[in-house]
Specification:
The chain is mainly beta. It contains 3 helices and 19 strands.
Length: 349
């Protein structure tokens, strides 16, 4: 029994150098686009699409990623425009706890917190918000594995559920009467809110091909987020992404991973009886779009710890109407894996 389990466990450790850093990426991607208005970046650490396999039997994982977005690029279709906003920025911390229930089945609990989401108008007016976002329950199961002396193959599928915890509707002061002191409020745009307020389903697929002797890995991920309706009659556009990855390790510690990622966001649906421009201060026509991104990443692993740094480079962007586009996005994070029980190899033989 020891001889059959040990190679599989070593394979998981080898995959960790590549796979771990992208787990946060996929959730950032979902959340950044969840606002529907192309929020300045796909959010690549829920971010590229995800690359996430399973843990070993009774193995646990603790991970966290910090994402910084800043953009002064705004577009109408594919063309840049200067008649929209001055700047948009975001600072987001994403955390995850995961556990290998069996050798093939892993369950994770994930959430994120926005330290800051700020939109600056052309006149210099700031609209800012912060707070906890969503909680995600994400089980995944390896449906296929095949290992030879030269190659390692794996296919993993997952279905997750996103539950909103933070605020999805808030208001800010837009005018104070200098005589009467009366304060007038207006709804903040959804792009600065920590959550959309909807319950969403996540469908996910991950395919891996590894060449252990050459220390090269190739993998792909497909992600689809089916959005639900929130309490105020909004249904943000469904999100889909596909990522193609190639990675190589050097000296068993350093790694470079290159990703090409395509993303699509559908147009927002809404209650036709509500004038969203008048009541909630945004145009539903300017939601959704497509992107093609290049994502380089540096990894470093030491024993059970992996750390990484990545950035997203937009190659193509199209937004519906006039909306925020990607410009600068950086992510750094770590993941720590450990066994929750001691393996008695002698007793297994």
């Amino acid at each position: 029994m020891h001889s059959s389990k040990r190679p599989f466990y070593l394979l998981l450790q080898h995959m960790a150098v590549y796979v771990i850093p992208f787990i946060g990426t996929f959730v950032f991607s979902m959340h950044a686009y969840a606002q529907g208005c192309c929020s300045g970046g796909s959010g690549s650490p829920i971010a590229g699409g995800t690359s996430q396999g399973v843990l070993a039997d009774r193995q646990a994982e603790i991970s966290a990623s910090f994402q910084y977005i800043n953009t002064n690029r705004f577009q109408k279709g594919t063309k840049r425009t200067k008649n929209f906003l001055d700047n948009y920025s975001s600072e987001y911390l994403y955390t995850r706890l995961a556990y290998g229930v069996t050798e093939r089945f892993t369950l994770s609990l994930e959430s994120g917190y926005y330290f800051d989401r700020t939109q600056v108008s052309l006149s210099g007016e700031k609209i800012t918000s912060s707070g906890i976002g969503d909680v995600i329950l994400f089980p995944r199961y390896t449906v296929y594995t095949h290992n030879t002396e030269r190659t390692r193959d794996e296919i993993t599928l997952g279905v997750g559920f996103k539950m909103p915890v933070g605020k999805y509707l808030d208001s800010s002061v837009v005018y104070v009467d200098p005589v009467s002191g009366k304060v007038i409020y207006a709804s903040m745009p959804p792009v600065v809110m920590p959550t959309t307020g909807s319950q969403d389903f996540i469908f996910y697929g991950f395919g891996y091909r590894g060449y252990p002797e050459k220390k090269v890995s190739l993998f792909t991920s497909i992600l689809y987020v089916k959005k639900g309706w929130n309490p105020i009659g909004q249904r943000f556009g469904d999100y889909a992404s596909i990522g193609l990855f190639a990675g190589k390790t050097f000296h068993n510690k350093f790694g470079i991973t290159l990703q090409l990622k395509g993303e699509w966001v559908d147009v927002m649906k809404y209650d036709k009886n509500i004038d969203f421009i008048a009541k909630y201060n945004f145009d539903v026509v300017s939601t959704g779009g497509q992107k093609l991104l290049f994502v380089p990443q540096l990894n470093y692993s030491y024993k059970n710890l992996a750390v990484y740094l990545l950035s997203e480079v937009p190659l193509y962007q199209y937004v519906n109407g006039t909306a925020i586009a990607s410009q600068y996005l950086f992510t750094m994070g770590f993941s720590y894996r450990f066994m929750t029980v001691k393996m008695n190899e002698e007793s297994e033989e």
